[in-house]
Each structure stands twice: as C-alpha cells, then as structure tokens.
Design goal:
By secondary structure, the chain is mainly alpha-helical. It contains 20 helices and no strands. It is globular. About 12% of the residues have low confidence. Keywords: Metal-binding, Nucleus, Repeat, Zinc, Zinc-finger.
Length: 464
Amino acid sequence: MEKAVGEEPEAALVGPTCLTPPQAQVLSHQTFDYIDPTLLLPSEPQELLVSMELGGLYNTEEQSLLGAFLSPQSQAGSLSARLDLLELHVAAHANSIDRYRNSFDAIAFRRFFSVSNVKEFAMIFCRKRHYQYPVVHWPTFALEQASLPLLMVISLTGATYSYRPGHGSENITDARNFYHLADSYIFHELKIFVDNLPSGGDLSEAVELCQAALLMYALDTLLASDLDMQQLAVTERLPTLISAMRRLHFIGCRHHPSEDWELFLRREHIIRLVSWAFCADCLATLSCNNPPIFSMLEMSGDLPCDPTLWDIDSVLTFELTKPSPQKTSYCLKELISKLLEENWRADIEWENLPLFHLHMMLCAFQHIIFNLHVAMFLKQQSDKLLQTLDIWRHLWERALERIPNDHRKWLGVAKNVPDIEYLSRRVIEISASPEASSSRYLQRLPSRGARDIHEFIKDFISKK
C-alpha cells in the first residue's frame, strides 16, 4: 500500500504547508483562486526550492511561506519545543501501559521526530493530500501550533507516503514501528477530551483530535499483515471516532450563505471529517462485513465543497470565489433518497453532481446492500439496485468528463471507485443466484481482514 501511495503523482505544494500560518503574513495584491497541479515541485526541495519561481505559479505570499518552511531558523525553536513536548506525552503514555512500558525507545523517537524530518514528512503529506482523507486545510495549518496527536500522525503519514522508486524505505519502516503506540496515544487523547468536554468554547482542539484519529485509522488499515490491528481499527477505533463526532454534534453540520471565511473553514473541517469517516465506515462494511455504524438518516449535513474553494488561502480570494446563496447545497440522505425513487429523472443539477458526491453515494450503497442482504430482502430488490447502479455509472462518467485528462491522475482513491461499483454489482448478482451459498463472504459474517472479499473477487470476478 505504501508503494501505491508513493507512486501517486505529487500535487503542487500549497505554500502554507507549515511553520507560519497565513494570517501572520502580509497579503500580496495578487492572489490565485486555483492551484495548477501540472506544475510540480521537485523531489529534492532542500536544494532547489529557495531559488525557484516555477513560472510565476506562486505569489509573494506563497514564496515567503516556502522560504519560512525551508529556513533552518524560522520557527524551528517553536517546532522543536513542540516535538520535545510530544516526546514527553508519548513517553508518559507508554509508561502507563504494560505493553509499551519497556519498549519505548526515546533515542529512536527523537531521531524520527526531528525538526528536519517532521518538516519533510509534512511537505510530502501535503503533496499527496489529494490521495485520501483531505481533511487538513494546508493554507492555514502550522506545525508548531498543531495539537500533539495531529502533529504525530501527520509526521507518520508523510513518512508512510515517502516511497520513491529506487530509494530506501527506512522512513516507512521507522514509521510502522510507531503505529501501535501512536494509535494507542491518539485514541487515548480523544477519549480524555470527549469524556471531559468543555462547555462552549473553541472546538478547534476537538477537530484536530478527530483529524488525528481519522488519519491514524487510515494508517492502521494499511497494515494488511497485522490482522489484529486491522480488527482493532474497524471494530473499536472507527466506532470511537464516530461516537466522538456524535457527542461533539459534528454530524449534520451545514454551511450558511452569510458565513465568513473563518466560519466557513471551521464548518468545512467538520463536514470533511464526517464525510470521510462515513466513507471509511462504508468501506469497512464492504471489505470486512462490518455492520454499519452510521445511520443514513443522520447524514443530513452538507457534503464537502469544491477543492478550489477548500484550497483558498485568503479572505479576499474567498469572497471572490464563494458560491452564490442560490447554489444548491447537497445532502447525502436526500441524494440517496431521490436516486432510489421509482420515477427518477435526471435534471441539470444531477448531471452536474461533483465527483466526490458520487463517490460518497456509491459508498452509501454498501450499507444499503448489506442491510438488505442480512434482512433477506436483497434478492427482491436486486433489479432496482442494479438499475440504480446504472444511473450512478452514467452520472460518474459525466462527472469524469468534466475533469481534464491531464488532471485525472490526481483523483487519488477516487480512481478506484468504478471498480467498487462493479464489485457491488457482482455482489448483488451473485447474492440472488444459487452460487451464493458457496461464498463465505456472502454469509455476511464479520471478518478480521479482507480475506473473504478477496476470495469472492477471485471466485466471481477474476474468473468471469
């Protein structure tokens, strides 16, 4: 999996990757409301970035931020202090748990979580941000101000994404050595926060803890050979995260036309967290037969905004780019309900649904298929579901047509969505056939990993 992520193309670095948040910078008069992904940063930034202008892609603000990111003096003391504090907190957590008490290696920790490594790992993660779970708003993110759990998991994720053909995998191996301890620490911190919720106040810490938990869940599920970790992630960690978001009233969050940029970002962070956690829940149902955690009825909040709006780095650009109050705001519950109507008819809004909304809709179908199957209604509803998947595929193809060919390599995990649609189709077809009894996967028993669905693919798709 690390190799697959490492071979993903790198998107242009949004200058704000870290160290000094844009609010502290002097805004230039020239702003951009897009990031051109065809202009990439070089693979070795330490030698080339400082003097490189990249054909005018970056405005003065972004060049300044890149300089601050690479400068050994700029904010390095603050980040170093945060990393020292992270070590103290993680060491204390390790000492409180028998499993880790005698295994915490302070020297290895300091070597991996050095200032230079953490900067590099954050930059790698930012470049690969399109791949999966784009929940961090890089233009306003600052490493030295991030919560300790988020600082830790961003470093681990960047190291995990650092694979390059022909280069060593030391960073990936070192990162894996910290997965178990990081998982324990991050979810421990989330539990403490949720158990002692402050009344009112700023929810920024809650958002960052949930971000850290979701990103850690993603790393946990990378360990295909560690079935215990995968089972822990699916059966305990994901329910813990979703329960926390319910208690924090994150689910159902919606934008308001009158909101300013700060409020927009606060709500969009939450919307993206809920949306990607929902996708993770649906894929756990598909791959492990894990019963759904989310209810479709609670998915009444907005879906994520367009990436060009999300990547904006200034108030001025936001005011120039934000959608008009009349623009349709999408809700997953309503989209699925309408798509399942008997007399569904496409209109201009449906024909222009964004790709990620369709991504989420297909994820939602995993819950529908599972629930109908365990209730023994899947066979009766199979024709309707297959017709609905036909409609979905048409809408997906229309959405894909709107993306330039040279930009499709930045689809990340979305490029696999049509394969999931075909797999869903085969699950429905085989479930309604006499062959269903020969498939362990179709018995709908929760599994510790993805072996059952791999066997289903081998028996009913690869041989087809």
